[in-house]
Amino acid sequence: MGPGDIKKTLQEEAKRLNIDKIGFASADPFTELKERLKDHRKAGYESGFEEPDLEKRTDPRKTLPNARSIIAIALAYPTRLENPPDSKPGAYRGVFCRASWGEDYHRVLKRKLEGLKVKLLELVPDAKVEIMVDTGALSDRAVAERAGIGWSGKNTSIITPEFGSWVYLGEMITDVYLPPDQPLTQSCGECTACLDACPTGALVAPGQLNSQACLAYLTQTKGMLAEEYRNKLGGYLYGYETCQAVCPYNRKKNFTQHEEFHPDPDQVKPLLKPLLRMSNREFRQRFGKMAGSWRGKKPIQRNAIIALGRYRDRTAVPDLIHLLENDPRPVIRGTAAWALGRIGGSEAEEALYRVKEKESNEQVMVEIEKALHECGIQETANHRTYREA
């Protein structure tokens, strides 16, 4: 069986496996990407989650010696919640971004790629294969672009003509030669909707992202979130997707052909207050199968606290005071202090003064001082309103 026949058989197998798109690319080094990544690193725009070795990120043969081809796949995911639960005072909810709905996409794509691997080994028993999804050395987007899956949008996502950028990407490197597909010539044109909508200016130029200012990245960090970003998160607990939501290619698109990605509305839009006292075990049981759980409960709890502070939910004050007084993690205590300052009131203010007397962490003390200042401003404003009335 020749290379063309093997490719055709894999395309047919992809349909059987319910893979939405499949493309084939050469395993030549990504020379242009390497230069861009050097500039990206020099500018300090990396997230720190990437493979640090630029040779591995841009040369498939560093992963699989004698690599000749890369098989890229894409799976489309849903964008709409059916009957979403309401978020209301006293029962505010957060939200996980669409890319974390349903089962963790890493697992799903790996199963699909394993299916293709089985078929390839039936055709070429001595073939060598390496599968990677998101956490591998190569850039999924660079591979998908070369394989004709889509083009690289100004928001740095791969945009497909059929599914917009609502797709998960994965790839399989092999030492078998397979005829490559041609990259798409389509582009974003003059549209700058994503750059204009980015609330932090993280999209510093078309196709160039400063990860350190990207809210999607920041929701996954474990440290204190800089104050300049706290009010911009909205109710997001994991991820952020404004740059995709405003994209014209994504309008009115919703894909439900993969049952694994169907969201549980109460899971992807959970009540915020119960998250604050959730144990590790409870967190794993409820959210462990989601992509958004990969960093553990700490970032999710921190983001939930920020959301409650932003909503100024007075019913959350007792829970926030409990965290401020008892949580062993400085990040959680400090964020709780910030939220209490935002909400204000005598109960919050008294707790802040009480904890100030015993708190030893410098970072938390800074947050307590700022929170007390915020409470003072609110109290002054309340007195002024009372006198004027």
Task: Outline the structure in words.
This protein has 17 helices and 10 strands. Among the domains are: 3-78 and 101-174, no CATH class; 313-389, Leucine-rich Repeat Variant (Alpha Horseshoe), CATH 1.25.10. α1 packs antiparallel against α4, α14 (317-326) packs antiparallel against α15 (330-343) and α14 runs parallel beside α16. The relative contact order is 0.13. A hairpin with a 5-residue loop joins β5 (151-152) and β6. The protein has a 4-stranded antiparallel β-sheet, with helices on both faces. Helices cover 43% and strands 10% of the residues.
Strand order of the largest sheet: 1-2-7-4
Radius of gyration: 24 Å
Distance between the termini: 87 Å
Low-confidence stretches: 383-389
Give the beta-strand count: 10
Mean pLDDT: 94
Class from secondary-structure proportions: alpha+beta
Strand content: 5-15%
Number of helices: 17
How can the largest sheet be summarized?
Answer: 4 strands, antiparallel
User: Into which percent range does the helicity of residues fall?
Assistant: 40-55%
Query: Quick one: overall form?
Result: elongated
Order of helices and strands: HEHHEEHEHEEEHEEHHEHHHHHHHHH
Summarize this, please?
It is built from 17 helices and ten strands. The protein has helices spanning 3-16, 31-42, 54-58, 105-123, 140-146, 193-197, 215-218, 227-230, 242-245, 265-268, 273-276, 280-287, 297-311, 317-326, 330-343, 346-356, 362-388, and strands at residues 21-26, 69-76, 95-96, 129-132, 151-152, 158-159, 167-174, 203-205, 208-209, 236-238. Helix 14 runs antiparallel to helix 15 (330-343), helix 14 (317-326) packs parallel to helix 16 (346-356) and helix 16 packs antiparallel against helix 17.
